[in-house]
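Inverse folding, one chain.
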Protein backbone atom coordinates (compact mmCIF):
# COMPACT_ATOMS: atom_id res chain seq x y z
CA UNK A 1 0.00 0.00 0.00
CA UNK A 2 2.86 2.35 0.83
CA UNK A 3 4.31 1.72 -2.62
CA UNK A 4 1.00 2.61 -4.37
CA UNK A 5 0.62 5.85 -2.37
CA UNK A 6 4.18 6.84 -3.18
CA UNK A 7 3.57 6.17 -6.87
CA UNK A 8 0.38 8.30 -6.81
CA UNK A 9 2.21 11.10 -4.98
CA UNK A 10 4.89 11.24 -7.67
CA UNK A 11 2.40 11.09 -10.59
CA UNK A 12 2.76 14.15 -12.82
CA UNK A 13 1.60 13.03 -16.28
CA UNK A 14 -1.30 15.50 -16.62
CA UNK A 15 0.41 18.60 -15.26
CA UNK A 16 2.06 19.72 -18.49
CA UNK A 17 -1.16 19.46 -20.53
CA UNK A 18 -2.98 21.60 -17.93
CA UNK A 19 -0.29 24.28 -18.17
CA UNK A 20 -0.51 24.30 -21.96
CA UNK A 21 -4.29 24.65 -21.73
CA UNK A 22 -4.00 27.67 -19.43
CA UNK A 23 -1.44 29.28 -21.74
CA UNK A 24 -3.64 28.64 -24.79
CA UNK A 25 -6.67 30.19 -23.07
CA UNK A 26 -4.65 33.29 -22.12
CA UNK A 27 -3.40 33.67 -25.70
CA UNK A 28 -6.91 33.31 -27.14
CA UNK A 29 -8.25 35.96 -24.74
CA UNK A 30 -5.43 38.28 -25.78
CA UNK A 31 -6.09 37.73 -29.48
CA UNK A 32 -9.83 38.32 -29.12
CA UNK A 33 -9.26 41.55 -27.21
CA UNK A 34 -6.71 42.71 -29.77
CA UNK A 35 -9.02 41.96 -32.69
CA UNK A 36 -11.85 43.89 -31.02
CA UNK A 37 -9.55 46.90 -30.60
CA UNK A 38 -8.44 46.68 -34.25
CA UNK A 39 -12.09 46.48 -35.33
CA UNK A 40 -12.97 49.66 -33.43
CA UNK A 41 -9.99 51.56 -34.81
CA UNK A 42 -10.75 50.48 -38.38
CA UNK A 43 -14.38 51.55 -38.08
CA UNK A 44 -13.32 54.98 -36.80
CA UNK A 45 -10.68 55.45 -39.48
CA UNK A 46 -12.99 54.37 -42.31
CA UNK A 47 -15.60 56.82 -40.99
CA UNK A 48 -12.98 59.58 -41.08
CA UNK A 49 -12.03 58.56 -44.62
CA UNK A 50 -15.68 58.72 -45.68
CA UNK A 51 -15.98 62.22 -44.23
CA UNK A 52 -12.81 63.30 -46.03
CA UNK A 53 -13.99 61.95 -49.39
CA UNK A 54 -17.41 63.58 -49.11
CA UNK A 55 -15.87 66.92 -48.12
CA UNK A 56 -13.83 67.23 -51.35
CA UNK A 57 -14.80 70.55 -52.91
CA UNK A 58 -15.10 70.07 -56.67
CA UNK A 59 -16.33 73.58 -57.43
CA UNK A 60 -14.71 75.34 -60.36
CA UNK A 61 -14.96 78.44 -62.49
CA UNK A 62 -13.66 78.71 -66.06
CA UNK A 63 -13.77 82.11 -67.72
CA UNK A 64 -13.51 80.66 -71.20
CA UNK A 65 -11.48 81.88 -74.17
CA UNK A 66 -13.49 84.61 -75.89
CA UNK A 67 -11.07 84.91 -78.82
CA UNK A 68 -11.72 81.28 -79.77
CA UNK A 69 -15.44 81.44 -78.99
CA UNK A 70 -15.19 79.10 -76.00
CA UNK A 71 -17.74 80.15 -73.38
CA UNK A 72 -17.01 80.14 -69.68
CA UNK A 73 -18.55 77.75 -67.23
CA UNK A 74 -18.74 77.14 -63.52
CA UNK A 75 -19.93 74.54 -61.09
CA UNK A 76 -20.65 74.94 -57.41
CA UNK A 77 -20.36 71.74 -55.41
CA UNK A 78 -22.88 71.36 -52.63
CA UNK A 79 -21.03 70.23 -49.50
CA UNK A 80 -21.97 66.74 -48.43
CA UNK A 81 -22.42 65.52 -44.92
CA UNK A 82 -21.53 62.22 -43.36
CA UNK A 83 -23.41 61.14 -40.30
CA UNK A 84 -21.08 59.09 -38.20
CA UNK A 85 -22.70 56.12 -36.54
CA UNK A 86 -23.08 57.20 -32.97
CA UNK A 87 -21.54 54.22 -31.29
CA UNK A 88 -22.37 54.24 -27.63
CA UNK A 89 -19.60 53.72 -25.12
CA UNK A 90 -19.70 50.29 -23.62
CA UNK A 91 -19.55 49.76 -19.89
CA UNK A 92 -18.41 46.66 -18.10
CA UNK A 93 -19.38 43.30 -19.58
CA UNK A 94 -20.61 44.85 -22.84
CA UNK A 95 -23.59 46.60 -21.25
CA UNK A 96 -24.11 50.26 -22.25
CA UNK A 97 -23.87 52.62 -19.27
CA UNK A 98 -27.14 53.72 -17.69
CA UNK A 99 -28.32 57.25 -18.35
CA UNK A 100 -30.44 58.35 -15.38
CA UNK A 101 -30.93 61.86 -16.73
CA UNK A 102 -33.44 60.83 -19.44
CA UNK A 103 -37.06 60.64 -18.29
CA UNK A 104 -36.15 59.08 -14.97
CA UNK A 105 -36.77 59.84 -11.39
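Residues assigned per position:
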Amino acid sequence: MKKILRKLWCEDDGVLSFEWTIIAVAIVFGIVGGLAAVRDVLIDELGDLGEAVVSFDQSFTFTGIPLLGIPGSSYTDIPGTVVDCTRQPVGSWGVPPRDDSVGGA
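The longest helix spans residues 15-54. The CA atoms of residues 35 and 41 lie 10 Å apart.
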